[in-house]
Design a protein that fits this description.
- By secondary structure, the protein is an alpha+beta fold.
- The chain folds into 3 domains: about 170 residues, Elongation Factor Tu (Ef-tu), domain 3 (Beta Barrel), CATH 2.40.30; about 60 residues, OB fold (Dihydrolipoamide Acetyltransferase, E2P); about 70 residues.
- Helices cover about 25% and strands about 40% of the residues.
- The protein contains 4 helices and 22 strands.
- The strands form 5 sheets. A 6-stranded antiparallel beta barrel has the order 2-11-14-13-12-15. Strands 3-10-8-5 form a 4-stranded antiparallel sheet, with no helix packed on it. A 4-stranded antiparallel sheet has the order 7-6-4-9, with no helix packed on it.
- A hairpin with a 2-residue loop joins strand 16 and strand 17.
- Helix 3 runs antiparallel to helix 4.
- The two termini are about 55 Å apart.
- The relative contact order is 0.21.
- The N terminus is likely disordered.
Length: about 350
């Protein structure tokens, strides 16, 4: 029995070895996709490190003294305009509102009574012994009650405004930067409770050498990478600071970016800025790039095999890059998919 099993195992091994897929020299061709190299007139770029900041920050305080009932947010929370942030206890305020409302009803009852009395005396004035003084006193009581009603209404309106403002809300869409209060705290008017940065006013402040300022124009679209997340996006150059750094002579760019969640003020961001006049560069997709020992390479296809070529990137253009190597020419096929597992001289099969 043992001999039969050994013979069967040997037969299986022979079949595997003789299979066409294994009979060929080396592994089968790697399936890849390629794209032709393009050409554009673009400027060389330089990468600089900037910092994120919220241009619009509100340090929120209270107009009222009171006990904090609850704090509805924590540091780092994203909030919408009108969302409650801090709620003050209004128990005493509610009692005062109830008192003023009851007082107003009493005044309205008195007004109805003195008005009725005044009109009666007005009709009888000059008759039935009603003197001018009696009529004038009735008119005074009526007008005085009207004034008292207006004063009570004003007091009641003020109390209602105070109650409304006991709920401190977000003034705009943003992110909570600091939280300086907690429930149970007694707060005074003017004390900072919450700091909120506007998510719609998120900018990057990036330094550049004054020597490349000539290539910078407001409105330019600049590639940006948020360092912490590796998130790539496009920023818009809004302005240039009018004062250069005294020591380095660097000038600072103000770059607006789209609202982002989970970003902190003073996080770093990498920005690609123009650093030369425009010139003709070969353009390749960033997906074509492979890293080896910290340098950039691309694969092309020659005679059905992968050929690796070093590239010198001089411009970052979103999902593309510009290179100035003379052997990277327009129309050359470079591998865009499947390049992460390729090896030089490996057979390849180009797919659609």
């Amino acid at each position: 029995m043992t001999g039969k099993y050994l013979f069967a195992a040997a037969a299986v091994v022979m079949l595997i070895i003789c299979h066409p897929a294994f009979a060929a020299d080396g592994p089968p061709p790697a399936k890849v996709k390629v794209a032709p190299v393009g050409q554009e007139e673009v400027a060389q770029t330089r990468t600089v490190i900037g910092v994120l900041y919220y241009e619009r920050i509100s340090n929120i305080s209270t107009e009222l003294a009171g006990l904090v009932e609850s704090v509805e947010v924590d540091q780092g929370d994203v909030v919408k305009k009108g969302d409650p942030l801090v709620i003050l206890n209004t128990e005493i305020l509610d009692q005062e509102i109830n008192f003023q409302q009851a007082k107003l009803k009493q005044i309205e009852l008195r007004i109805a009574n003195v008005e009725k009395n005044y009109k009666r005396l007005e009709r009888l004035y000059g008759k039935a012994g009603v003197s001018e003084r009696e009529r004038d006193n009735a008119l005074f009581e009526y007008e005085n009650a009207q004034i008292e009603k207006q004063a009570t209404q004003a007091t009641l309106q003020k109390l209602k405004i105070q109650k409304k403002r006991s709920v401190i809300s977000a003034p705009f869409n943003g992110i909570i930067l600091t939280k300086d209060v907690d429930s149970g705290s007694w707060v005074q008017p003017g004390r900072q409770l919450i700091s909120i940065g506007s998510s719609e006013d998120l900018y990057i402040r990036a330094p550049i050498s004054e020597s490349i300022l000539q290539y910078i124009e407001p409105g330019q679209q600049l590639p940006v990478t948020i360092t912490a997340f590796g998130k790539e996006l496009t920023g818009t150059l809004e302005d240039i600071d009018p004062v250069a750094d005294m020591k380095t002579k660097n000038v600072f760019l103000k770059i607006s970016i789209e609202p982002l969640d989970l970003v902190a003020q003073n996080m770093s961001a990498t920005v690609s800025v123009p650093a030369s006049a425009k010139r003709q560069l070969s353009i390749i997709n960033r997906a074509s790039l492979v890293k080896f020992q910290g340098k950039d390479f691309v694969y092309t296809v020659k005679e059905g095999k992968a050929a690796i070529l070093p590239v010198n990137i001089v411009a970052y253009l979103g999902d593309k890059v510009g290179v100035d190597n003379p052997y990277i020419v327009p129309g050359m096929p470079v591998v865009t998919e499947g390049n992460e597992r390729l090896r030089p001289d490996q057979p390849v099969m180009v797919g659609e």
